[in-house]
Design a protein that fits this description.
The complex is a heterodimer.
Chain A lengths: L2 H7 L2 E8 L6 E7 L3 H12 L5 E8 L11 H5 L23
Chain B lengths: L2 H8 L31 H23 L8 H28 L6 H6 L10 H4 L5 H22 L5 H29 L3 H14 L11 H8 L10 H12 L30 H16 L6
């Protein structure tokens, strides 16, 4: 086995970081690794060098089920004209600052 | 409880919101008393800082030589991070050496202004690696030993050494974990990868005894409560290596059949006697400083 084929054998992982001020994990990029533990190490070494993170998630890219761009209209267009789903017709009490 | 309060409870550092990643960077010596501890032999303390500083500086340079040579881009970054951690330790220790020995030499004077015979690092730090398996075996032994050393050094009566050790323990815990995980992968991988890690362990075995052979400096500082005795680290290093290697059906270097430890270099790096590889390493390390005398960067 050459180094080239070994490289392509390593699966792709997606990396999610929770920053010091972040409430949720945010996708920051992807990397190759042979197993999940190695992916965590790589993510630590590649994406937290500048003190960015306090928590890391990694997940095999192949394990993510994503919506397809082809389905954009049937998926998302129907909600575009339903303005009544937005709570803009209500008076917001002063004691509720963020909504 | 409003949303703002909940947010603050989760966010760990709420000052200075302008910076995405915070501004919580403090030097490892912030607030540390830099006066020499009472009753300490200043020359011995300086010599000791030089030993630990040289171990880190030389090992760091060997790791840097893996840049553009590592098998994967991600591993290259990992090795660079480890090299940078060690370089940071070396800078603090060499600076402390200059403060303690009264010469006032700074970190650059020590790194770039000494000849090979004046370096005090162990041979384990200076030898070359035949391949990635050799590097992993060497890094595992080096980081296991240095972690055991710095773990005890946190209790030193010298506040600067204790602070450097406290910083280094966190770094070396990661280095050891990195090397241990790779060792298990290589040992459990293909016949070829296992042969490489077996050869790597065989190559470092003769260098291990030097780690536990005390110099007069170390014995003096140990008696004064400033540094651990090198021999006291052997039990922990042996146990950790056994813990990592037995599951991979490998024999830890310290427990070779017959259990008579291989003799180390004597006199070795702690006395300024080095391998030919060290000469080449220093030629490279010091070449820029020699070509541009007095340059700053």
């Amino acid at each position: 086995m050459t180094a080239e084929t070994a490289r392509s054998d390593w699966p792709l992982y997606e990396v999610f970081l929770r920053g010091q001020r972040g409430l949720n994990h945010v996708h920051v990029g992807s990397l190759h690794a042979a197993d999940p533990q190695m992916a965590l190490h790589h993510a630590r070494d590649l994406y937290t060098r500048r003190n960015e993170g306090v928590s890391i998630w990694v997940v095999r890219s192949a394990d993510i089920t994503a919506s397809s761009p082809d389905e954009k209209d049937p998926f998302f267009a129907p909600s575009g004209d339903k303005v009544y789903r937005h709570p803009t017709f209500y008076d917001i009490p002063d004691s509720v600052p963020h909504i | 409880m409003g949303f703002d309060t909940a947010y603050r409870a989760i966010a760990e550092d709420s000052d200075d919101q302008r910076w995405a990643f915070g501004t919580g960077f403090t030097g490892p010596l912030a607030g540390v008393d830099q006066a020499l501890p009472r009753g300490a032999d200043a020359l011995e303390l300086g010599a000791y800082c030089l030993m630990l500083g040289d171990d880190a500086l030389v090992m760091s340079h060997r790791l840097q030589q893996w840049l553009a040579r590592a098998p994967e881009l991600e591993e290259e970054t990992a090795l660079a991070n480890i090299a940078l951690d060690l370089l940071g330790q070396a800078r603090l220790l060499l600076t402390r050496a200059g403060q303690a020995d009264g010469t006032g030499r700074d970190e650059d004077d020590f790194a770039f202004g000494r000849t090979g015979g004046e370096f005090r690092n162990v041979w384990l730090a200076e030898v070359t690696d035949a391949d990635f398996g050799g590097l992993i075996a060497r890094l595992l032994v080096f980081s296991t030993w240095r972690l055991a050393l710095l773990d005890r050094l946190r209790a030193s009566r010298d506040p600067v050494l204790a602070a450097v050790a406290a910083k280094g323990v966190k770094e070396l815990t990661y280095h050891r974990d990195y090397a241990a995980q790779w060792l298990l992968r290589l040992a459990g991988g293909t016949d070829f990868s296992r042969a490489r890690i077996v050869a790597g362990l065989a190559a470092v075995t003769p260098l291990i005894n030097e780690l536990f052979t005390p110099t007069d400096t170390e014995l003096g500082l140990s008696a004064a409560g400033l540094a651990p005795s090198p021999a006291s680290l052997r039990a922990e290093v042996t146990a950790v290596l056994a813990h990592v290697l037995y599951p991979a059906s490998l024999t830890p270097p310290l427990l070779e059949a017959g259990s008579a430890p291989a003799a180390g270099p004597s006199p070795g790096g702690r006395h300024g006697v080095h391998t030919d590889a060290m000469t080449e390493l220093l030629d490279e390390l010091q070449s820029v400083a020699r070509a541009n005398l007095g340059a700053t960067w």
